């Protein structure tokens, strides 16, 4: 077991070796969090306990009472699915709203809230996130992925713990309330996808729930479980993949460009965001329409979409919109 920080000599291969079942090593992992709790604490990461969650909701309940709310204390303590009542304060407290591969925690001594994700150490997801976390990628303002703070590898168990900043409220629940803020958010989604594509990475599961915000005007992609990083010169074809927003050719069982699959999913996602936002943006549906072309060869590249965005909606450029714009 050792702490892992990316270095070129340690970069994983582009795909699992033939001796490893690719489906197995790219499936979700369900670790025994209690078993790995000491290891994570050794590296400075405290997993949420019953006491932590109870203290949070006690504080929340006190504020509600101060504001005259009629909510009951027991109801607040059990919200979000936390099994807090009648348990010892030091017991781990799993958020039932998260998959078993994720756990909330705190970075010590900074106090920063984090999400710790477990993946197979041979998975494509780890490979992609390691690459996106290289210094060169992280310095690039076009990299709209949630920052990974740490990678802790347990090689003998084929596990990797990825420590991510805790962002919240996907586009489903947190859409910008002004047209300028909305366009700024959409531009980040497009620019982030363009960044991935120029680095030969296809996300392959772009959706409402996989784009989060930090509530300061920044939006970022998460969940690279289905993602692929293609080698230079490799044909980026995919077939029979699963995902939230799949284009018609994939639904028919045909092969398609992984990048054009992303374009379709992006189109569906930003159109849903537009309908949910209730803002008025002239010609936005016409702007999105080419992304949803039935023929994948007729869908524009991410670079072309970004260029069209800046041409049609110049107010979406970073220096034009307020990064702290109000959010619903």
Characterize the structure shown.
By secondary structure, the protein is of the alpha+beta class. The chain is built from 11 helices and 12 strands. The protein is globular, with a radius of gyration of 21 Å. Mean pLDDT is 85; it is low at 1-19, 72-81 and 320-328.
Quick synopsis:
Pfam families: Pkinase (PF00069). The chain is an alpha+beta fold and 328 residues long. 34% of the residues lie in helices and 15% in strands.
Name of the level-1 CATH class of the largest domain: Mainly Alpha
Oligomer: single chain
CATH architecture of the largest domain: Orthogonal Bundle
Alpha-carbon distance between the termini?
43 Å
Extended strand count: 12
In spatial order, strands of the major sheet run 1-5-6-4-3-2
User: How large is the share of residues in beta strands?
Assistant: 5-15%
Computed over alpha carbons, the radius of gyration is 21 Å
Shape: globular
The major beta sheet can be summarized as: 6 strands, antiparallel
The CATH topology assignment of the largest domain is: Transferase(Phosphotransferase), domain 1
Mean pLDDT: 85
- Helix fraction? 25-40%
Structural class: alpha+beta
Instruction: Give the count of structural domains.
Output: 2
């Amino acid at each position: 077991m050792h702490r892992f920080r990316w270095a070129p000599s340690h970069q994983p291969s582009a795909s699992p070796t033939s001796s490893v079942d690719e489906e197995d090593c790219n499936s979700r992992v369900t670790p025994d969090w209690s078993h790995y709790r000491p290891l994570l604490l050794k590296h400075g990461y405290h997993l949420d306990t019953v006491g932590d969650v109870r203290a949070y909701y006690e504080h929340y309940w006190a504020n509600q009472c101060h504001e005259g709310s009629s909510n009951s204390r027991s109801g607040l303590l059990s919200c979000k699915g936390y099994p807090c009542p009648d348990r010892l304060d030091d017991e781990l407290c799993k958020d039932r709203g998260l998959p078993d591969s994720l756990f909330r925690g705190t970075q010590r001594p900074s106090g920063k809230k984090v999400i710790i994700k477990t993946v197979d150490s041979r998975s494509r997801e780890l490979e992609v996130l390691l690459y996106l976390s290289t210094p060169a990628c992280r310095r690039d303002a076009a990299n709209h992925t949630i920052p990974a703070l740490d990678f802790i590898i347990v090689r003998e168990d084929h596990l990797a713990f990825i420590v991510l900043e805790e962002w919240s409220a996907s586009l489903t629940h947190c859409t910008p309330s002004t047209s300028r803020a909305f366009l700024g958010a959409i531009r980040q989604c497009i620019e982030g996808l363009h960044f991935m594509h120029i680095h030969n990475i296809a996300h392959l599961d772009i959706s409402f729930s996989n784009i989060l915000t930090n509530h300061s005007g920044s939006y970022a992609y998460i969940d690279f479980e289905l993602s692929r990083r293609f080698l230079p010169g490799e044909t980026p074809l995919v077939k029979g993949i699963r995902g939230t927003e799949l284009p018609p050719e994939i639904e028919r069982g045909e092969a398609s460009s992984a990048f054009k699959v992303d374009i379709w999913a992006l189109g569906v996602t930003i159109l849903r965001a537009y309908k949910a936002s209730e803002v008025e943006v002239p010609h936005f549906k016409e702007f999105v329409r080419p992304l949803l072309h039935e023929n994948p060869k007729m869908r524009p590249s991410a670079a072309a979409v970004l260029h069209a965005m800046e041409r049609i909606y110049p107010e979406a450029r970073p220096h034009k919109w307020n990064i702290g714009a109000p959010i619903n």
